[in-house]
Structure formats: structure tokens, C-alpha cells
Amino acid sequence: MFEALERLPVSEMAMRHAACRQRLAEVAPEAGGLAVFSRMGIYYLTGTWGNGVLWLPQSGEPVFLCRKGLERARLESPLGTMLPYKSYSELPGLLAEAGSPLSPVVAAEMSGLTWALSDLLRARVKDVRFVPGDAALARAMAVKSDWELGKMRLCGARHDKALQELLPTMLHPGMTEREAAHKAWEAFFSLGHMGHMRMNAHGEEIFLGHVAAGDSGNYPSVFNGPVGLRGEHPALALMGCAGQVWRRGEPLTMDIGFVLEGYHTDKTQVYWAGPASGIPEEVRKAHDFCIEVQARLAESLRPGAVPSELYAMAMDMSRTAGMQEGFMGLGGNKVNFLGHGIGLAIDGWPVIAKGFDEPLCEGMTLALEPKHGIPGVGMVGVENTFEVTASGGVCLTGTRYDMLCVE
């Protein structure tokens, strides 16, 4: 009686399974398979936002054990074997009966479980040794297929249209941050934004993003990013403050994501309240420097480039230009990265930062976000989402990076 809104192609699912298995052999060669617990990981490997456990053996058929929503899973996913279950204690028996028994060593997506649930899993499944398997899943998800890239390109084009074409006509000095945030939602929803965005980092949340007028851009932040903001309330330090007005002669920094069919792009657009002739030289210089850094990084987004080396290059640029103070945040807001992978979550693998030494691959998508905080003024700079190609990074979120002036 029902039809799925979308069904993952069998070829796409098989390609994802193969990529995960290949990565698993590299990061956990002793493991006979990967147990996936997060809904995002299950979605990536099955096509359904499943509640349960997916067992992906190195050889043999994968099995999805579903706690809730089995009927929907069967509509949306082409996976062959999907079974109901209630307790972790049932896993060994059910998987054995399905012809895909657990191996003596299992790689687990450990970030997909709470501490309490992982203890419960070990107590119920006693004859298995669990090893970390998160890296295999993260690395597989980092390289996008043509099917995924099609979604992200469409998402990026709509993101750019909203921030470059629609929103400037809806903003004006004198608005509060909250009013500006609501206008952003209005523009985004008109172009198909799905509303709910996702993050990988444990306990991290995102709702629209950061809307910061003037010195809000340097307000102490609890979010792992360079843009400060007052936010809605201490209980939701996101979006925009109803008590903060965007005044003439100030930047309005909107670091806000777009999501379409599950896939995200990230983009920051700075609006200036007043004519271009009124932008102070210090502000213009900082913003232009961020555009320059983005261009250098984007040109280097080729297969084989090393993220930690790209980070070092950008830091060298900031020191050479005398821009290190305020670059990537002021004071406690300063962050030690220049960009991040993006796809089904805003914060994907890899990160443009120290310690990320594995070379980039064609088809990866990364958000580059060089920004600069100016005391008493706010935050300027850029962020855009790029696809790694043999000829360098291709921007998915537009090619216009200047501040947009709103009278």
C-alpha cells in the first residue's frame, strides 16, 4: 500500500559496503566485520534511518537487526536480510541463523553507543572481543559517490541562491539577530531546506547555525567554531539573539548550513550594514585575507594533498601577513582547524588541522572556513563547501565571496 519516498540504489549500497570493508581491512585487520549502531551509519549503509544494529561482515551478507520500524526499513532499503530483535543477547543467535555469524573479533562503531549501552552490549555478547571501527566508517563516508555528489551540488546551489540572492532583499539594518535568523529560515525553506541538520561530535548540536551582528561575532562561544554568538538563550546558544540589533557600520555574520535529502553544505556570508565605501580598511583587509586563504586552500584540494600540510600553509600565510591575531577566532574562540569534511553530517572526516596526515581522495567534500575576528567590530571571513578534484577544489556553494552591502 505504501511507497518509499526514496530507495537507495542496489549498486550504491554495494559500493558503500565495499568501501567500508576495504577501510576496515586497513584500520582493524583482525576484525571479521563491522557492527554499526548510529542511525546515520545505518542510513549510509542501508538507505533507511534505522533503529537497531547493522552487522557488515567482511565476507557474507550484511544483516540489519531492527528494534523499531522494520516495515519502513523494508520499503526504503534494498538490503536482503532485515530481522526484528529486542535485546543485545539475541544478536549472536539471530545472526548465526541468518547465515552471517558474529566473528570472534568485531569492529564496533563505538561513537554510536553511549557508555551505558556499550557496557550492556559487552555483558550480553560475551564471547566477542570488540575493537574500534569508527575510522573505517568515517573514511568510507568521506569519499562521495556520484549519487551523493549530485545531491550535494544541488544543495550547494540552493544554499548560494538563498544567501546571495534572496536574503539580501529581506535584510536591513535595525533588525535583531533573531529577526535576521527567521528571514534566513524563510529563504531556506522556500528552496527546500529540510530543517533538521546533524552533527557527528558527541553532544554537539546545530540549529540553523550562527547569526552574529557586530561584536556578537566575538562573544564567548561553546561551539567548536571560530564565530562567536550570543544565541537564543544560554540553553540554546545558536541562531540569533532577540536583544541584539544589527546597526549601521557593522557586519552581520551568518554561518548557516543547508541540508537537502540528508546531505549538507556549509557556507558563511557576511553582510555589511551600509555602503561599500563605509567599510573600514581594517575590516576590508581582514575579509580579503580570508578570501585569499580560501583560494590557496581550494586550489590545493587535489588527490594526494595532506590536510595537516594545508593547515600549516594557511597558518604560515597568517604569520607572513601579520594576521595571526584574530585569525580563526579571538581569544578563547580561536580554533585549531581551517575546515572539515561534510556530507550526511556537518562535521565530517577529515579535518584541515594538525594530525590529519592521510592524503585527500577525489570525491571528498570539505568546508573551508577561514575567518577573522576584529575586536569591537565582529567576525568577517568566508566559508564554502568544496569538492576535491584532480584540478583542485570545485566550490559547490557559489563563487562570490565579498561582503554584501545592505543599505
UniProtKB/TrEMBL annotation:
A GO molecular function held by the record: aminopeptidase activity
Name assigned to this protein: Aminopeptidase P family protein
Keywords, comma-separated and alphabetical: Aminopeptidase, Hydrolase, Protease
Gene3D superfamilies reported for this sequence: Creatinase/methionine aminopeptidase superfamily, Creatinase/prolidase N-terminal domain
Cross-referenced PANTHER family: AMINOPEPTIDASE, XAA-PRO AMINOPEPTIDASE P-RELATED
Record-annotated Creatinase N-terminal domain positions: 17-138
Top-rank taxon, per record: Bacteria
Alphabetical list of Pfam families matching this protein: Creatinase_N (PF01321), Peptidase_M24 (PF00557)
Peptidase M24 domain residues: 151-390
